[in-house]
Specification:
The chain is mainly beta and about 150 residues long. It is built from 1 helix and 9 strands. The chain has a single domain, classed as Pnp Oxidase, Chain A (Roll).
């Protein structure tokens, strides 16, 4: 067995209004973190026909897919709670979000966290299938990497 490999089930997203009151995404089936950087084209006549770039603005987003429930939860965030941050009572307010590992956490494990806005929210319901929802949280400012406590 290879060391250092992580079971995807151990990765979770936690969301809250601050680091001290974050809760997991309810009934999550997947999660992801995307970090990207814009490129600034520096191609010129001396590039010999090759594109040349320098790094530009960096951005990040965290997303999750989860099973849909039709009730509000206090110890987890589901569709209803994310709706509040996009179009409901807390409309357009940022949240604190982090991607972290649960289970056998060591000091080598990393947590990625920052402030983000709910920028996408969708619900899916297939015939005779479990209803699901997807949420994307787009970072505003720095994404911080920290050692797990």
């Amino acid at each position: 067995m290879a060391t250092g490999l992580v079971n995807g089930t151990d990765l979770v997203i936690q969301v809250g209004t601050s680091e001290s009151n974050d809760v997991i995404v309810a009934y999550a089936t997947s999660c992801s973190l995307e970090i990207s950087m814009d490129e600034i084209d520096q191609t010129n006549k001396s590039s010999n026909g090759w594109k040349s770039i320098i790094g530009g603005t960096r951005s990040w987003s965290i997303s999750s897919e989860a099973l849909y429930q039709n009730e509000s939860k206090t110890d987890e965030k589901g569709f209803i709670e994310f709706w509040d941050h996009l179009g409901g009572t807390a409309e357009r307010t940022p949240v604190y979000v982090q991607l972290m590992r649960t289970g056998s956490v060591t000091s080598d494990n990393k947590i990625y966290h920052g402030s983000a806005y709910v920028t996408s929210l969708s619900v899916n319901g297939g015939t005779e299938d479990q209803a699901t929802f997807s949420v994307t949280l787009t970072g505003t400012g720095v994404l911080t990497e920290a050692a797990a406590a």
